[in-house]
Amino acid sequence: MASKISLSLQSWLTGLPPLSASGKIATIGSLVNCPCSVLLLLVLLEGRRPGGEGDRFREVTDNGEIRGRGDETSSETAAFAVGQFDLGEIDLRVIITGGGGFLGQQLCQKLLVRGTLTGETGVEEAIEEIILFDSHFHQGVSQPTTSDLPPIRVEQFIGSVDSQEAVHAAVGKHRSNTSIFHLASMVSGECEERFDDALRVNLDGGRNLFEAARELGSKTRLVFASSIACFGGDAMQEPCTDHTKLTPQTTYGMTKAICELMINDYTRKGFFDGRSARLPTVIIRPGKPNAAASSWASGMFREPLNGTVCLLPIRRDQRHPMTGYRTVIDSLIRIHELPSTLIGRDRAIGLPAMSVIPHLAEQALRQVAQELEFSLGSIEDHPDPRIQGIVDHWPVAVDGSRALALGLPSVPSLQTIIRDYLEDFQPRGG
User: Fold this and answer.
1) Cis peptide upstream of residue 358 (ω within 30 degrees of 0)
2) Residue boundaries of the structural domains of the chain
3) CA–CA separation, 38 vs 48, rounded Å?
4) Which helix (H) or strand (E) holds 90?
């Protein structure tokens, strides 16, 4: 797809080692007279332009500037409007907010292996660059060794979604063919304890990103990670469906429901092509428990697999909708690639899930442990009224039939999810 990109020649050339005085002048003259020369210039300066080899890490400083590792600080407000040049076909750029988190990292790795994604053109396209946006990163990203495709540039951009400047700096302007996955969010337990922060990060942060996507154009695809916490109260059904009224009973669920409605309206007005994936609880997350009220769901698998004790904060008969992390990643990609007309006016799609109780989790764990011949840690009751009170307002079952009809993957068995976890993260006994 032919794209018009506004470039500031001064922004591109400032700070670059001069080829020579005449060389720089000749380059500018060539750009003015021949748009095709832009491609040559970008190839020559590949290692120094944003996203190139010399700028794989960026952060927004306290004074609103962007700093790249090993580079001089450049102003975030640098103009990109001196002239417009037709760059011809431009490959797809993908932005993942929450890119330092578990799902963000898993999504990035999946896209690196795939190498392609169906974007705004409606056809499969090569991914040129992935921008991971988050407030912090625990690790870098490794390129897959099994792919025959050219490596994809990956950039870690440090910033918070509640900063309009940081979001707009990461997303950029005047760049078509961009796809966005919005995974960044405060989690449920945090939101209950820090109401004002939840509004600032989940609501203001969402709107900051939606406005940045709006500037990219109506064909920009944006996938938002919502939650079954949107359901609650007297309107909650068993199972909850895509037609169940959203009456969340937690601050976290309220922020997710509002973002769903904003995406519906931004899409209705033609600002961008938005889609929401309403996620059940995702298992099995590696590492330590987090502040989510559903953290126990992964913990009752992860801790026994690691040979340690899981302190279970909820009742033994508590039913809760869950699905595997691999399935969620495949679902996010499938939702992104769906033709807009198939989704219709309700842009939120509820993912299928199984209702799991701790007893079922223990059965699946024992079966896999027996197959692979390793011992398990125990699950012990440790009631937490605060966690139980939050979980009591969430659905116990969901109906994902609409998602299945749209071609999203079905829910794997608990045994499959456990084996996937062992394969990917190799805890003790794996």
Assistant:
1) no
2) 1-88, 91-425
3) 15
4) none
Report which of 274, 166, 298, 152 is spatially closest to residue 219, judged by C-alpha positions. Answer: 274
Domain 91-425 has CATH 3.40.50.720: yes
Q: Which tokens is 190 given?
A: 């945090």
Location of structure tokens 């099995």: 284
pLDDT value of residue 2: 36
pLDDT mean over 124-151: 87
What mean pLDDT comes out for the span 209-235?
Answer: 96
Three-state DSSP state, 226: strand
Percentage of the chain beyond pLDDT 70 is 77
Top pLDDT among 146 and 12 is at: 146
Do residues 314 and 359 lie in contact, with contact meaning Cβ atoms separated by under 8 Å? Answer: no
Please return the burial class of 66, using the count of CB atoms within 10 Å of its CB with bins 0-12, 13-18 and 19+: buried
- Yes or no: say if 186 and 201 are a contact pair by the CB < 8 Å rule: yes
pLDDT at 122: 82
Mean pLDDT of 198-207: 98
Task: Return all residues near 23 (Cβ < 8 A) that are at least 6 apart.
Answer: none
Q: Is the pLDDT of residue 181 over 90?
A: yes
List the catalytic residues: 252
Q: Is the pLDDT of residue 231 over 60?
A: yes
What's 57's DSSP letter? E
Residue 4 CB neighbours (<10 A)? 11
Contact 120, 43 (CB under 8 A): no
- Does residue 312 contact residue 300 with C-beta atoms inside 8 Å? yes
